[in-house]
Amino acid sequence: MGFHLFAAAALQDSNTNSPARGLLHELGIAQSIVDYAVSEAKSRNSARIAEIQIEVGELAMIDRSILSNALRMLKSGPMLDRCKFRVKVRRVSFSCRKCSAKWTMAEAMKQLEKVPQELLVREPDSKEVPLHFLPSLYPAFVRCPKCGSADLDVTAGEDVRIMRLVFE
Amino acid sequence: MEKGSEVGFVRLDALKKLGKVGRVILVGSGKGGVGKSLVACGLALRLSEMGRRIGVLDTDLHGASVPDYLGVSPPLSSGRGGLVPKESGKLKVMSVALFTGDNPVPVRGAGKEGLITELFALTDWGDLDFLVVDLPPSTGDELLTAFGLFGRKSTMLLVTTPSPSSLRVVSRLSRLAASEKVSVAGAVVNMAFAGAGRERIYPFGRKTISEIEERLDARILVQIPLDPAVSTGGLRRALRAKGEFSASFDELASSFMKV
């Protein structure tokens, strides 16, 4: 019950206009980030975490506002109550190793919308493309829009990373 | 006070998940076509029947066949603890083919490390006594990723046929495991013979156990016969039937129960 309320609140506060979409993955990420920051603070005998800087790779298809809300809702206890979360999106750029064409995530999204229904991962209120969970799987679903090749490169932007922790 | 080095969320989750796994059995060969997936799945099924909590992770990104042996298919679902592995009996199964179906997965080097790490880290395995990892052919990215990911919890099970070319390739893997300080639990000689009694034939040549052990620098745990029933009726049915094929998997699983 508590969890559903939490998820619903996170979705309501989201600034996206997209229909209800996966929350569980973002919640899991938020929990992992907070767990790690707290364990680091304890190992350094710090009483408080002042700031956590996070970079979200665009290819990971994480909803930044949902992640930010989830992080804020995990701010409990003296260790985290004054913590600032800074979440930045790192854009991804695709390039074709065969014809050297370059394109963005927006172009790739057009292809990802065509992923067959049976391959979408079921979440309680939505269906998600596999890249939402496995960003490194892009070569199975994205093709060069110019020549059709699957031999692609991406710039960084596949992972969710903790870039900096600031302790008091 | 600050900590400025980058930490990937997936790597954090991988460490968390590994903490709930008792032992990792890396089933590898270096050679293609020797029956790694069959051995991995048969071993997992037997260990599960013996009451152990078992997960099977298919790291053969380009030629995943674990879903076929264990009868699982897309779609996957996701829950509070991450991706829900497919269940095959009591086995928990995860494979890239459960995301891609019949799509090819033309992923290059560094991408393989990311993909295998994501596949393990984001799956809600729960508590496992054994995670059985089916490795692809070669001694490249997938194998090195598995060594790095599972570290000291892992032990290798080498799979070979009696053929000289297979033994040569598998011996290289054995040496690599030694240099990377990954323990080798032993080796399986798959497709060691076919038929029974006087009708027995040796399609990949005949070697004594001591010859193979010396070549691989590893103890032979069991010899598995070539059983056409796997192709005609499936692995589960072949394991249920009485005979040398089925008995060999009893023996193999028992050797891990002692570990």
Structural description of this entry:
The complex is a heterodimer of chains A (about 170) and B (about 260). Chain A is an alpha+beta fold. Helix content of chain A is about 30%, strand content about 25%. Chain A has helices at about 1-15, 25-45, 65-75, 105-110; strands at about 50-55, 85-90, 95, 100-105, 120-125, 125-130, 150-155, 160-165. In chain A, helix 1 (about 1-15) packs across helix 3 and helix 2 (about 25-45) crosses helix 3. Chain A is elongated, with a radius of gyration of 18 Å. Residues about 1-20 of chain A have low confidence and may be disordered. By secondary structure, chain B is α/β, with parallel strands linked by helices. In chain B, the strands form two sheets. An eight-stranded mixed sheet of chain B has the order 7-8-4-9-3-10-11-12, with helices on both faces. Chain B has a two-stranded antiparallel sheet with strand order 5-6. In chain B, helix 8 (about 210-215) links the parallel strand 11 and strand 12. In chain B, helix 1 crosses helix 5 (about 110-120), helix 2 (about 35-50) crosses helix 11 (about 245-255) and helix 5 (about 110-120) runs parallel beside helix 6. The mean pLDDT of chain B is about 95. The interface between A and B is large, with 46 and 39 residues. Strand 8 (about 160-165) of chain A pairs antiparallel with strand 2 (about 5-10) of chain B, so a sheet runs across the interface.
Concise description?
Chain A is an alpha+beta fold.
